[in-house]
Request: fold
Amino acid sequence: MKLRENLPGQGKNKTPQDGVQEENMKNGKILGLGFAVALLTGLSFPALAASTKTPINHVTLSIDAGDIEIGSASKTISVDAAEDSYEVTNSSGTAINMEGAKWANNVTPKFKITIKADSDHRFDTNALKSAAFYTLNGASASFVKAQGSSNSITLTVKLPKLKGNTSDLGVADLQWQDDSASATWTGSDNAQKYYVKLYRGSSLVTSGETTNTSYDFSSAITQNGTYTYKVRAFAYGTYGEWDTSDELEVTDVNSIRQNNPTPNTGGRWILDNVGWWWLNPDRTYPRNTWKFINNAWYYFDGTGYIYINRWFHYNRDNNWYYFGQSGAMLTNARTPDGYYVNGAGIWTR
Reply:
């Protein structure tokens, strides 16, 4: 009888190589099983940890915005959390739409607030973007928008639009200084600047603005007549009410410049490669106008330079004036070419 041949691996002596392969396969199965267990275990820990945190389904904040008003430079509001499960970073909100150095009129202040959950709590990410998720107490604050995660929220709120109180911008005691063309008034402590208007009768002659509580109208008074001026204060987008002066009766227009006793101080002369010009305290400079500086009259042309050693015909009063070597207008004097100018600086034929 012929014996059956052994099938591969059956009844056959194993070689050392076969033993190594079997051991590797065995170890591989163990390693693979261990990796799978580790992977499953690793994935389950965060999910388990998150599920154990207590959800925060509502946030209540107390807001104090007492420093936010027109003219204020404050950029923060005070914000406190109502629960210990979350906190407000720095207990404050930061302005995100403040233009310039101070709050202006008609601005709706907006602030960004950062809220953090503690280690035992988490925010409801499905609800935190809704206004209903928040209760805002104080300062008439209201919800704008929110975004974040289970750990942190960035909340934007707004305050009511800022509205100026015109009663804080009143002016008073409008006067003509010593019956001259210099106007003075009592200003407001809250004003940034003042707007002025000059009238002859009911007709507007000129208008301007100043940071002072006085204004020189002498260059604009070129005709005889009855003059009044109006002033109102301005601060951070808010205008005060116009107030009107008493009347100034001008019967000799040529004496207006001479009678104006108010020197212009605070500016300075500047010489460049063209000539002399005057720099005002507010960094502006006069053009096409008269200016009384240190007890002398000067006229500035359209580019801002004074006339020196020359005649000037002033169209508004149809008179001729002469300016000497210093640029000052001559008065009660004879010009280098032999003509005489009177006390108002006018050439007398």
